[in-house]
Design a protein that fits this description.
Helix content: 40-55%
CATH architecture: 3-Layer(aba) Sandwich
Strand content: 15-25%
Strand order of the largest sheet: 1-7-6-2-5-3-4
Largest sheet: 7 strands, mixed
Shape: globular
Order of helices and strands: HEEHHEHHEHEHEHEH
Low-confidence stretches: none
Number of domains: 1
Number of helices: 9
């Protein structure tokens, strides 16, 4: 039942956003990975999740803002039951943030792939903001997991901030080549390189 509903949700998301999909290789991820993308709409994780091949989609969990997806019972139901999202708080002290990151590590240890948005909050859709440290933390905790950059184009127009229903338009989802942390690479250098990988997909 869950698989059927998830497939229907994926189809609806693709119809609403009309995405063209482009990957750097034959498929976006040959093994367990972390997809990291720019963030400008609440549709971002839904569309990224929806365009994945179904076997990969079945084992990929989006990381999403708790305050939005727990705002109603219906949102929470879909987020946790069908998307199997990991809901996290966008604010908190260092201890709380570390606990949430360890929750993501546990999801990786269970064999899941993840979708994350390293900017930490939605932008306006024009510029990619600085990346926060969560991606660096995950890459150091599980260095064998591939990191796949993704650029989401035009989703901020399909579901602008403050809107509840999408306005159907065309969009594009671009997957880049996987990357990993380099030996001796600093946190700042790694986050700059990861952000540049997403930025390069924007301009390509």
């Amino acid at each position: 039942m869950r698989g059927l509903v998830a497939a229907c949700l994926a189809t609806l998301a693709r119809v609403a956003s009309g995405p063209s999909v482009r990957w750097a290789g034959d498929t976006p991820c040959q093994r367990q990975c972390i997809f990291f993308a720019n963030h400008a709409s609440h549709l971002d994780f839904v569309v990224l999740w929806a365009v994945l091949p179904s076997p990969l989609r079945a084992r990929t969990r989006p990381v999403a803002a708790r305050d939005y997806w727990e705002a109603s019972r219906l949102r929470r139901f879909f987020a946790t039951r069908f998307f199997q999202a990991v809901l996290v708080d966008r604010a908190g002290n260092l201890g709380q943030l570390r606990t949430q990151l360890d929750q993501l590590v546990a999801a990786l240890d269970a064999g899941d792939s993840l979708i994350i948005f390293p900017e930490g909050t939605r932008g306006a859709g024009r510029e990619i903001g600085p990346f926060k440290g969560g991606l660096d933390y995950l890459s150091r905790q599980r260095p064998d997991v591939d990191l796949v950059p993704v650029y989401l184009d035009n989703l901020h127009r399909i579901m602008p901030k403050g809107e509840f229903l999408p306005v159907p338009q065309l969009s594009r989802v671009s997957f880049g080549q996987p990357l990993r942390l380099l030996p001796g690479e600093s946190k700042a250098a790694f986050l700059a390189r990861a952000r540049a990988a997403v930025e390069e997909l924007k301009s390509s």
